[in-house]
Amino acid sequence: MPDHSPVTTDLEPERAYLAAARADLTRMRERAESLDPNRASDGDSAYELAVTLARRVASLQDNPHTTLFFGRIDHADPPPRYIGRRHVSNDAGDPVVLDWRAPVSTAFYRASRTEPMGVVRRRRFGIDKGQISAIEDENLLAADESDSSSAILAQEIERPRTGPMRDIVATIQPEQDLIVRSDVDVSVCVQGAPGTGKTAVGLHRAAWLLYTHRDRLDRSGVLVVGPNRAFLDHISAVLPALGEVRVGHSTAADLVAHARVRSVDSTEAAVLKGDSRMAEVLRRALWSRVGRPTEPLVLPRGARKWRIPAYEVQEIVDELMTRGVRFNAAREMLPRRLAHAVLLRMERAGDSPDDRVQESVARSGPVKKYSATVWPAVDPAQVLFDLWSDSERLAAAADGVLDADEQRILLWGKPARSKGTAKWSVADVTLLDELHDLLSRTPSLGHVVLDEAQDLSPMQLRAVGRRCSTGAITVLGDIAQGTTPWATDSWGTAMTHLGKPEHHLEVLDRGFRVPAAVIDFAARLLPSMAPGLGAPVSVRDNTGELRLVTVGEDERSAALIEAVRSALADPGSVGLIVPDADVTATAKALRENGIEHGQLGVESVDEADHRVQLVPATVAKGLEFDHVVVLEPSDIADAEPDTRTGLRRLYVVLTRAVSSLRVIHSRPLPAELAEHA
Ligand SMILES: Nc1ncnc2c1ncn2[C@@H]1O[C@H](COP(=O)(O)OP(=O)(O)OP(=O)(O)O)[C@@H](O)[C@H]1O
């Protein structure tokens, strides 16, 4: 007997249970709607209460497109437990549906015949238009090792993709669930080939953490960091669908937006500016702003003048500099320390000054002025401006850290006139963020989910890391998809830059997106650009469709339009991924042929949710489409600064397809891809 057996007899009782659960949810909502926020003790509390109640009412809305539960587990003793997206209880307060994140729900995801966790039967519900359409049972006490595949799971994985990414709460796999439910204080790093569910797992982990540690994380905040706007838009519906609307989403660039980015560094400058050695250069450059006192502090007070000699001020400054506090915190302590030194002199002279005198001395004009001269306020932009435009300052800060050639790379050829007119690069604003943190500690969030982490430079990783310095992080990525010249080759190193050397490394290798025919093709690139990393093993039943179309250059545009039209004949989304340089011409060709489409960019999304999306190759990361049409792989690879990065970019582009991949090219394919073709 197969392990997962379709059940037909229980359909009606289960539908009745669903109807009753829906009625319970309606009652819960009506009760929340009837509560009067004006019963709070004052206006502010009433407002707070009104907001909380509105949120609660919204979270109790029934979604007619889905059911309240997707699974059920039976233990030896009744009652059975129904698992759904949210908790529902009846009038007596007894649970009718359990939230998937509740500890008791864990068994639904993890119980197996080898470890049944007290579960005797797992039931999955097939859902169609908000109604239960199928039931599948798995007997966990069965001894035989027969077919363990689930048709409902297969159906979910095979369904055509339309619109933004959906949650996977009904079909989270045991190895994914282990990551989702890792302890709140554990930082997890997930390495996984394309389509192994890293993003899905990261988002469900955020939802689980918020449910399990609501008080702590609601206060401190949870943030998801992704590569660009198009990606954030793609994933934006997942957490709200799980009832979590208060999770921030940001690109890595927006995290450090201290200035407008108006220039692009050369590759070698960008790599160097992203190198972790820059942290030491910046630290020295900043702290060198603290001056050496040459004059004594003179404080007239009444008939007397109090003097603190320069050497004594120097001792105070030295002590403050070695305390391990941030620059501004130490700077703020200086007037009080000077006042204390004055106080000691007053006492020695027979006075008995109290705390108020110390306070007034610290705030006095001469002390404030003297402090500000010795320890000036510093603007991060000025520090960086001076480093890039003044070779002597740079040499002083970089001595023993960067060699002369490296320093030359960093210096501006034509320095801007001032920090205000300086044209900062992406790497520069990341360095500004480091300087801001050296001045004053960056507040830490409770948890950060960092996606596509392999692409960040060490300095960018530090910027993300300081945003969860007191919390934990979930890092998601794939070394083989690293497409920046500074991409990481080692998760151990990346996690150290993030400030989390103690972490769990997990590997996901079952591919839920890319069908076998497509992954086999893309995986030809792996030995040359990520030796040692394997391709995912596709769990898809559908082996997919791969078409390579070689055409003459003048036929390319027509072939492309033909490929898009043929993709549109099947259900699902169509991604047309082209070299960045071809975006404008391709958009024109689509328009001329009457093919409506959206265009994605680093900063732009398709609000209208067209079926066809035109995607520059550099924006494709993390996205997926039912059908993918790729134009001219060799141009996509050649647009990158080096061969390895080019092949990795191509690997990303080729692994976006759920059902079919069409490759249109007039140039020969890169040799690594063409091999064994
Ligand atoms: N357990 C699952 N059940 C159903 N679908 C799943 C499951 N895990 C992942 N998927 C689906 O597989 C697809 C790929 O997932 P996801 O985008 O999270 O992969 P990824 O590892 O982040 O890929 P990439 O490295 O290419 O960005 C998505 O459509 C996701 O919903």
From TrEMBL:
Keyword set, alphabetical order: ATP-binding, Helicase, Hydrolase, Nucleotide-binding
Source organism, top-level taxon: Bacteria
Q: Which residues form the UvrD-like helicase ATP-binding domain?
A: 171-558
- Please give the start and end residues of each transmembrane region: none
One GO location term (cellular component) = cytosol
Q: Where does ATP bind?
A: 192-199
The molecular function terms of the Gene Ontology recorded here are: 3'-5' DNA helicase activity; ATP binding; DNA binding; hydrolase activity
Check the record and name the PROSITE patterns matching this protein.
UVRD_HELICASE_ATP_BIND (PS51198)
A GO BP entry is: recombinational repair
Known SUPFAM superfamilies for this protein? P-loop containing nucleoside triphosphate hydrolases
Annotated protein name in UniProt: DNA helicase
- According to its UniProt entry, this protein's organism is Flexivirga endophytica
